[in-house]
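Hi L.,

You mentioned the student needs an example of a multi-chain input paired with its predicted structure. This one should do, with 639 residues in total across all chains.
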Amino acid sequence: MSDKVTIRRLATGVPGLDAILGGGLPEFSFNLIVGPPGSGKTTLAHQIMFALASKERSALFFTVLGEPPLKMLRYQQQFSFFDPQKITESIRFVNLSDEVSTGNFDEVLARIIKEVEASSPGLVFVDSFRSVMLEARNQPQGTLSLQQFIQQLGIHLSGWQATTFLVGEYLANNDPHPVFTVADGLLSLDQSVHRNSMVRQMQVLKMRGQATRPGMQTFRISSAGIEVFPTALVRDDNGAVHEPAGSRRTKARVAMGVPGLDEMLGGGLPSGYSMLVAGPSGSGKTILATAFLAEGVRRGEPGVIVAFEQTPSQSRTRTIDDMVRAGQVGLINTRSLDLSIDEIVQHLVAQIHRMNAKRVVIDSLSGFELAVAPTFREDFRESLFRMVAVLSGLGVTVVMTSELEDRYTDLRFSPYGSAFLTDAIIVERYIELDSRFKRVMAVVKVRGSAHSNELREFEITDKGIIIGDPVGDYEGLLSGRATLVPQVKVVGRAKLR
Amino acid sequence: MATAESKLFRESIRTALAQRVGIPDSDATAKATAATWRLVAAQLLPVIGARGLEVLFDRAHRMTCATFPWLAVGSGSGAGLLPGVAERLACQRPAEAAEASYTLFVTFTELLMNLIGESLTARLLTPVWAGPSMPSVKESVL
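Structure written out for the whole complex:
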C-alpha cells in the first residue's frame, strides 16, 4: 500500500483559529490548552466543542474541580455559541470531582475510560489539568502516580479515535510536563495588562504535521466567544513569498480628486500605491484623503476609511457620512485603546472584500498608534510594514495621513520612520509669508515615476483644496526663514492671496 | 414571577409526583420523594457534581422548611437529609406531605433554573418529569 494516511482537519468554529493552526485541527489529535486563570481556556474549549459536536460526532466534557460546574454552565451560557439543545443530545458533561478528590488516579482513569468506551465520542475534553495536579498531593500509596496517570491518559486519548483536549492552567516554561511530549497540539493562552489596556494573546506552540502561524496572536472574547486576529502574513497561504508589491498594480493612475494634484504626481497616483500625506495639525491631510475617496466614489470605485480621529472635523464627517450612508464607502471607526494592528487589518481586509473596495484611507497613523494597546506600540513600525504589504497584495490604492510636528530645523516626513514603507509621499507645511500663515504642499516621492518637485501654495475652501502657484520667489521656506529671491520673476500664474 | 417554562415544569412535577404516589398516602409520598430525588441526582450528578447538587438541595430544603417547618431535619446535608425528609413526610397527612414534596422539587428546580437557565434545566430534567421514564414507587428502595 503506497497510500498515505490523510489527516482530516476540523474547522474549530473559532474565527481566525484555523488560520493560525495551519488549516484547522487535525482529527484524532490530542491537544493541550494551557494558560493562566481567566485567559479563556474553558471558553475556547467550549466554543470548539459546540462548533464540532453533532449527533454523529458526540462530545464528552469531563469537569474536574477547578471552576464549579454550576458556575461554568451559568457563565458559558452568556456566549452565543452555547446551544442548550446540544446538551444531552450531542454533548455530555461528566463531573469527575469525586474521583479526583480521593487522589486515586486509577479511579479517575478508570472512570474516564468507562465513560469514553460507553459512548465512543468523537470529542473528549478534560478540564482542568491543574486540578488533577493539585489533587496529586493526596494520592494514596501504590496507585498511579500523576505522571503515570497523565501518560496513560495521553496514550488512551490518542488511541480513542477521538479529537481530545486537556485543558490546564499555567505550566512553568522551564519545566515542561512530560505530557507536552505526548500531545500533538499545544495552545498557550495569555493575557497581559499594560497601563489601562488588557491584551489577550495565544500561541500555537506545537501542532504536529502542519505549518502553524508563528508568534503570539491576539484574540478577543466577546459575547460571540473568542475571535483570533492572525498576524498579517506577507507570505501567502502556501508559504510562498507574497506577490511583490506592484505585481497587482497596473499602469493605470488613480485620480486624487484635488485639481492640480494629479499633475504634480506625474499624472495621478499609480494604482495600487500607498501614499503618505504628512503634515501638522489642521494642514488639510484629512480633507485631501476625503477628496481621494470622494473621487473614487464619483468614478464608481468603492472605498474604505479607517478613522481614528477623536474629534473628526465637521466637514469630513459630513462628506464621509454621506458616502457611508450611500454604501459607497465603508467606515471602520474606533475609539478603542486596546487594539492590535492585526485586528484592524483583519477588519479592513474583510471590509475591502465585502465592498470590493479599490481605495483605502487610514486617517491617521497618529490616531492609529494611540488606539493600539501599549503592548503593541513597540512593534508599531513592524506591524505597519505588514499592513502596507497586505494592502499592497490586495491591489488597493492607499492613502495614509500622518500628523507631523512642524519643525523648521529638520525635514521629516513621518514620526514612525514609515516614509520608506510607502510608494508616494506628500508633505504639507505651514509657512509665514507676507505676514500671513500659509499652507504649502509638495510631492516628495512617487516611486518609479516622474513628479513635480515644486512647493505649491494651497488653500482650503468650501469646495475643498485649491492648489495655487509654486512659491517661486522665496527660498528657505521650510527652514522658517524665508528670503526673497530678487531675480525670480513669476509669469502667467495667479497668486493666491 | 414564574415564566411559562417554569409553570410547565410545576405542572409536570405535580403530575409526575401524583402518578408515582398513586392513591394519596403519606408513606407512598415519602417513598416517591426519595425515588424521584435519586432520578434527579442521576441526571444532574455528572453535570454539576456531588457538591453542586448538595448545595442546591440543602438550599431548596431550607427554603421549603419556611413553609413547612416540620420538614426540618436535625443534621446532615444533601442526600444525607433524605431519610430524615422521608421520615417527616411519612408522618404527615397525605395532602400536606404531597404539597411539601411538590414544593421541595419546585424550589430545587427553580433554583437550578436561576443558575443555569430554563432551557438547560429543561434539557437536563425533562427525563425525570416525563412520566414513562420514572420507575414506580414499588421499584424504589429508600
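You could point out the following to them. Chain B has five helices and no strands. Confidence is low (pLDDT under 50) at residues 132-142 of chain B.

Best wishes,
N.
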